Amino acid sequence: MNKILEIKNATFSYDGNKNIWQDINIDVSDGDNICILGANGCGKTTLFNCITRNANLTSGTILLNGKNINEYTITELARKIGIVYQDHTVTFPYKSLEVVKMGRTPYLKVFETPGKNDEDIAYGIMKDLGIENLADTSYSKISGGQRQLVLIARTLCQSPEIILFDEPTSHLDFKNQAIVMKTIRQLAEKGITTIMTSHYPSHAYKTSNRVILMGNKKIIADGSPKDVMTEKFLQETYGVKIKINKTDEEQCFIDIDFRDI
Amino acid sequence: MAGIRVHKKESKVKWIIIIVAPFIAFFVSLFLGRYTVKVEEIFRILSNYFFNIGFEKTWTDSAAKVIIEVRFPRAVMAALIGAGLSISGAAYQGMFHNPLVSPFILGVSAGASFGAALGIILGVPYVYIQILSFAFGIVAVLITFFLSHIYKSTPVLMLVLAGTVVSAFFQALLSIVKFTADGDEKLPAITFWLMGSLGSVSLQDLTLSIIPIVISIIGLIVIRWRINVLSLGDREAKSLGIHTERIKAVIIIFSTVITATAVSVCGIIGWVGQVIPHFCRMLVGPDHKKLLPATVFVGATYIIIVDNLCRTLAATEIPIGILTAIIGAPIFAYLLRKTKGGWN
C-alpha cells in the first residue's frame, strides 16, 4: 500500500512550553479509513489543523505523497486534502448548491467564478449523495445532518485524495448520525482515504478499518478496531472505567462505569 | 458524474430593472432643478459637449453651463459614490461575515473627517482639503490594519476592534480641531462638510475620482467569488484553497480607495453601505456572485434619487448625509424586522 500521508516525529505546542502532543508518528496508506479517538483537549482537532496548515507543527514534519506539506501552495493542498468541519456557523443563507460549488474553488483562477461545468459537477455529487432535492434550499433551513452531507458534497467537489472529518456526528440526533455515518462509510467503500475524529467509540467499528487512540500527549494505540478497541486501551484513553459488550462485528455497546469515580 | 439539472428561470425582468434603473434616475436628475432646460436640449447639449455632434444651438449659455458643469458631474458623482459605498459595504460584510458592518468600520470616515477639518482650519485651498481628507482616511485604515495584524494573520475580530479604537482616536482629534476652530466661520464649515454634500462637485472632482473608484469597483467585482468563500470564515476558506490574508488585504485596499475618495469629495454619507447590500440580498439572494453587481446598480440609483431629493425638497439644499440617515435608518429597521436578520 502506498503511503500518502506521513506524520513524522510531530510535536505541537501553542505557547512553546506545554506540548499538546509530542513525537507522534502516523503513516496513512491509500485506502485507510481511520477513526481517531481521544478525550477532550487531547489535540485531535489540532492535528487536523496542522495537516491543513491552519497551525504549524512545533517540530517534526508532515509529508503528503512524500513531499512536505509546506512545499505545496494552499491551492494545491486544497486539491489533495479536504476537510469537513464540525462547528459551522451560517452567516449568509446561501443555497445548498452554492455551498457545494464552493468546493470547486481550488480549480478556479483568482478572477474566475464557477461556470456551468462546475455546477454540473457539484450537482452530480449532490445526486450521488442523494441530496439533490436540497440544491435550491437555503443552507440555513436544512437539518444538521443534511448540512453535514452538504459539507461532505462540497469537500468531494475538491476531488481530494484524503478527506478529514472533524467530529462529523457531534450535535446530531441518532437518525442524522446514522445518515452521516452511512455516507462516510460509502465513501470509504469507494476507496477514498478518510480520517475522522469522534467522541463515539462505537462509531469506529462502523466507518473505519483502523483506529488511533490519542491521549497523554501520545498515541496510545494504533491498529485494527479489533486489536485497539479493548477495555484496557479505552480506559487509558478516557481515564474512566469502560465496559464493552460486543454483539457482532459492527454492533458494539460501549458504556462508561462511573460508580467508582 | 455530471448531473443534469433543470435550471429554474431566473427572473430576467428583475435584472433588467436593476440595471436600467440608475440610467433612468440619472436622466431624470439632469432634468430636475430650478433652472428649466428642455429634455431634448439636455441630450443635445451633452451630445455636443462629449461627442462634438454639432446640433444647432437653441439654448442659452447658462443652460449649457448648468447641465455640463453642475448637474452632469453631480449626477455621475452620486452614481459613483452610491455604487462604491454599496459594493464596499457588501464586500466588508462578506469578509467580516457580518451583515451589519458598514464600509467605514476600519476608521476611514473618522480619519477623513479629521483630515478635512484640519484642512479647513488651516485655510488651505479646497483641493488640499480633499487631499488631506483622502490621505488621513488611508492613514487611519493603515493604522487599523497594522494594529490588528498579529502572527502573519489578521483575524476579523481584531480588525473590528482596531477599527473601533482608531475611529475613536480620530474622532477625538476631530473634536480638538473643532474645539479650537473659529466659531463664526470655520466651525460651521467643518460641521457642514461632515454632513456630506454633493453640491460642490465639479467636473474636475469627477475626473479626479472616477478612475480610482471605477477601478476599485471592478476589482471587487472580479474577486467576488473569493468573497463568497471568505464569508465561510478563515479556516474553511483556507481549506478551500484561498489565500485568506492576501484576499483580505485586496478587499481592504479597494474598499478604502473607494470610501476615502468618496468621503474626500462629498463628506460623510452614512447608512448607504449597510442598507443597500441588505436590500440587494432581498432582491438577488446572498450569493456575492450576483450580490456585488446588484449593489453597484441599486446603490447608484439610490444615491442619485436621494441627492435629487436633497436639492429639490426644500428651498435650501439639505445635506445628503442627513437624508441618507433619515431614510436609511428606518428602511434598515424595516428590512431587519421583515427578514428577521436572514434573507431567505
The amount of helix of chain A comes to 25-40%
Described by the principal axes of the CA atoms, the overall outline of chain A is: globular
Q: From the coordinates shown, what is the CATH architecture of chain B?
A: Orthogonal Bundle
Overall, the morphology of chain B is: globular
Please, how many domains of chain A?
1
| Average residue pLDDT of chain B | 92
Q: How widely separated are the two ends of chain B?
A: 30 Å
How many strands appear in the DSSP assignment of chain B? 0
CATH topology of chain B: ABC transporter involved in vitamin B12 uptake, BtuC
Provide structural commentary:
The complex is a heterodimer of chains A (261) and B (344). Chain A is α/β, with parallel strands linked by helices. Chain A has helices at residues 44-51, 74-80, 96-101, 116-128, 144-157, 174-189, 203-207, 225-228, 231-238, and strands at 3-13, 19-29, 33-38, 59-64, 67-68, 81-84, 162-166, 193-198, 210-215, 218-223, 241-246, 252-257. Chain A has a single domain, classed as Rossmann fold, CATH 3.40.50. Chain A is built from nine helices and twelve strands. In chain A, the strands form three sheets. Chain A has a six-stranded mixed β-sheet, sandwiched between helices. Chain A has a four-stranded antiparallel β-sheet with strand order 2-1-4-5, with helices on one face. In chain A, strand 7 (162-166), helix 6 (174-189) and strand 8 (193-198) form a beta-alpha-beta unit. Chain B has helices spanning 12-31, 39-51, 61-95, 108-122, 126-148, 156-180, 186-195, 203-222, 224-230, 234-239, 244-266, 272-284, 288-312, 320-339. In chain B, helix 3 (61-95) packs across helix 12 (272-284) and helix 12 (272-284) crosses helix 13. The A-B interface holds A 49, 52-54, 74-79, 81-83, 85, 88-89, 91-95, 98, 102-103, 105-106, 108, 110-114, 119-121, 123-128, 132, 135-136, 138, 140-141, 158 and B 1-5, 8, 94, 97-99, 222-226, 228-229, 231-233, 235-236, 238-243, 281, 285-287, 289, 342-344.
